[in-house]
Amino acid sequence: MLWFRRDLRLADHPALLAAASDAGRRQAVVPLFVVDPQLWGPAGAPRRAWLIRSLRELRAGLAGRLVVLHGRPEDVVPALAAQVRADRVHVTADAGPYGRRRDAAVAAALGRDGRALVATGTPYAVGPGTITRPNGRPYAVFTPFFRAWAQHGWPAPAGSAAVATDTLWMRGVDSQELPAEPDPGTARWPDVGEEAAGRRWAAFVQAGLRSYDQRRDRPDVDGTSALSAHLKYGEIHPRTLLADLAAVRSAAGLSATPANAIDSFRRELCWREFYADVLWHRPESARANLRPEFDRMRVDPPGERFEAWRRGRTGYPFVDAGMRQLLAEGWVHNRVRMVVASFLVKDLHVWWTHGARWFMERLRDGDLASNQHGWQWAAGTGTDAAPFFRVFNPVVQGQRFDPDGDYVRRHIPELRHIAGGSVHEPWSAPDGYGHGYPERIVDHARERTEALRRYEEVR
Hints:
Elements: E1 2-4, H1 14-23, E2 31-35, H2 37-40, H3 45-61, E3 67-70, H4 73-84, E4 88-91, H5 97-112, E5 116-119, H6 142-152, H7 194-207, H8 212-215, H9 228-232, H10 238-250, H11 259-281, H12 304-311, H13 317-329, H14 334-347, H15 352-362, H16 368-379, H17 394-401, H18 406-411, H19 444-458
Parallel strand pairs: 1-2, 2-3, 4-5
Helix pairs in contact: 4-5, 6-11, 10-11, 11-16, 13-14, 14-16, 15-16
């Protein structure tokens, strides 16, 4: 059996190769996905919708033979293994706190029947927990982790696509229906699945990579790879991306791609790996401050201002554009994620866990390690954190990274009548509030002073 989880693809899939090798020439592999209530229940509509679409694409690639079961994995996986007489259930290792507990429970249940859970590979280029400092302790700062990660290296992509033919997958195993897909409303969605991920990556390498280091902080342009959800669900593996980056660097025909752009993209991939490593060593950091001195920080309860932030009605256009993009697309540009997080924590004084929970509910690429530790970075409470006294000015950030105001006007129709960068300060325009845009709910300068006062109390 091959139990798919966060690896919804057929190419570059080491666990698939291991399952095919186990099956040999005369046997077949049962491909399985379990709709786990522990994961399905807390997931918001965007993540559920992406998952269902991705599973449909995977099922098509498996000649329609994907087996879907609903229930607790420790119950349904051993039961199916017994039904099809599978001695070994192959998986890609899961590094998350829940995934590790779940897999231990499944392995124990299989073991009682003389069967085994076999983990091969990881969703990351380098498995979390692999890289440590010379003294054996985990890295607490990104830059030395990045150096060690790059020096450690990673395997070449696995050649699993060649064996994933129709003849490999077992026929005639009963399957349940996929859950109903949530209605995405008017949300703008990219294509989903392994083929879509490959197309998106190829297009980015061809047209976007060469200027990535210069454009990646600009939400008003298409300057990022937009692969985060594809990576989240394992529709493409970071090892594949890293191999292609190495090929681009060495290919004379693509020498127009500067090394700085390639290195910048590699660093962004490594941030994802770093945060997964932090969560591996400190699973409590999904819900608690990594720096416990901030437990004493005075915070305000989420109330009307928090609701205004969630709905993109704070009166600060760059912040509101980001929050409306979240609602409309289930995705937010990374620069904007930092700005809206800083605004919630340091202008509204609401603690980061409330914002992180809202993001996990609304993001289509919601990944526990990246989301929680990205929020801790912005809040100044985490590993490699920006210092708490660094408070993003939402107006200056908009002027710097959306200089012509195109991003704001794209997401805030009430401000489309204001031309150019003036859109970041509607209070200075004669008719800035003439189309229903709200006035500022707080004064940034005053709240920055208040945030620093609270910081001094715990410093």
